[in-house]
């Protein structure tokens, strides 16, 4: 198998490539469970998703997540936290702090929460505005009090740069900096990422899109996720399926994972 010169056989380097990229992924999977932004502000605080178009109750993710954490043998567990400084660019009440681009679809004096504006830059930057939420070290940024935190789990903080928003748990929206998630997954040689949490069509969707783009096997747990907008949730599901991601319900996740 390792003879470079023998016809029809692969050499050592080629075998190493196949092993690392294909065989190991199948015979020695390493699972990561990623709980996205199950924080007070999204459930009952300033960005309460139950008041948004989809009218979903964010607290309903806690039961399936806790059940999975107690039944399933994930190799590693991560909790992400949206973790903004008070002057963050995504807050509607900060919109006058920075210059808007002349072509912004909404002007600063007319802008309301959930509108999309374009900041001047350079380069110009599209940004959806949200109510002030998940400010560092406030109650709204804390994980839901009933969420089970397992020993050895890693917390990942995102959205800490005041100038750039961060929906994906991998990178900020401009891909300037990566979070500790990237290096942690590499270090553990993770192959499969199980993703759930809030909000389905915002941070959960962006995170699973990045996981699939990197090449991880990514599995979205549908009943352990809740979102903002029904049409956007459907679009998120299509994107996942079109990019070879998998959508399951929590009862379909095997205990030996
Ligand atoms: C999120 C809106 C703004 C999320 C974060 O975690 O889905 N949504 N910031
Ligand atoms: Zn945010």
Automatic annotation (TrEMBL):
Q: Does the keyword Hydrolase apply?
A: yes
Entry keywords, A to Z: Calcium, Hydrolase, Metal-binding, Pyridine nucleotide biosynthesis
Positions of the EF-hand domain? 1-25
Specify the pathway.
Cofactor biosynthesis; nicotinate biosynthesis; nicotinate from nicotinamide: step 1/1
Question: Which EC numbers characterise this protein's activity in its record?
Answer: 3.5.1.19
The question of whether Signal is a record keyword is answered with no
Q: Which family does it belong to?
A: Belongs to the isochorismatase family.
Q: What is this protein called?
A: nicotinamidase
Species annotation: Plutella xylostella
Stretch of the intact protein here: 89 to 345 of 369
């Amino acid at each position: 198998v390792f003879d470079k010169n023998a016809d029809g056989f692969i050499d050592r380097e080629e075998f190493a490539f196949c092993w690392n990229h294909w065989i190991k992924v199948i015979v020695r999977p390493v699972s990561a469970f990623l709980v996205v932004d199950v924080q007070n502000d999204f459930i009952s605080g300033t960005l309460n998703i139950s008041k948004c178009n989809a009218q979903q109750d964010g607290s309903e993710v806690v039961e399936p997540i806790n059940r999975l954490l107690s039944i399933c043998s994930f190799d590693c567990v991560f909790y992400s936290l949206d973790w903004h400084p008070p002057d963050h660019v995504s807050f509607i009440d900060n919109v006058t702090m920075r210059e808007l681009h002349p072509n912004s679809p909404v002007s600063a004096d007319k802008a309301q929460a959930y509108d999309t504006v374009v900041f001047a830059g350079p380069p110009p930057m599209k940004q959806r505005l949200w109510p002030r939420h998940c400010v560092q070290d406030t109650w709204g940024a804390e994980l839901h009090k009933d969420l089970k935190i397992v020993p050895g789990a890693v917390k990942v903080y995102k959205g800490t740069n005041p100038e750039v928003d961060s929906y994906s748990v991998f990178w900020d929206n401009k891909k300037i900096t990566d979070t500790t998630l990237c290096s942690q997954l590499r270090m553990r040689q993770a192959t499969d990422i199980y993703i759930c949490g809030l909000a389905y069509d915002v941070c959960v969707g962006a995170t699973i899109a990045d996981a699939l783009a990197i090449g991880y096997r990514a599995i979205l747990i549908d009943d352990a996720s809740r979102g903002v907008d029904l049409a956007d949730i459907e679009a998120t599901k299509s994107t996942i399926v079109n990019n070879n991601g998998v959508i399951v319900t929590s009862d379909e996740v095997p205990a030996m994972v």
